Amino acid sequence: xETLTLDEARLSLTALEKLKALPSLKVLELNRIEFTAGxxxxxxxxxxxxxxxxxxxxQDERERLERLLKP
Length: 71
Description:
elongated, 3 helices
């Protein structure tokens, strides 16, 4: 697996750091992922050989995610 795209999710930094187990991973796309800029920087340090893209969520995207994840 070289490229992984995750979309519309609430994930922890701890969960994403488990991607270290994918030695061939080169690209990680985090679309509409509820994450902070600080978390992304930590993830980049944890996965230095992986290109990580993460556009920060808009308020509309946050509200949509909240609706999707409600029980």
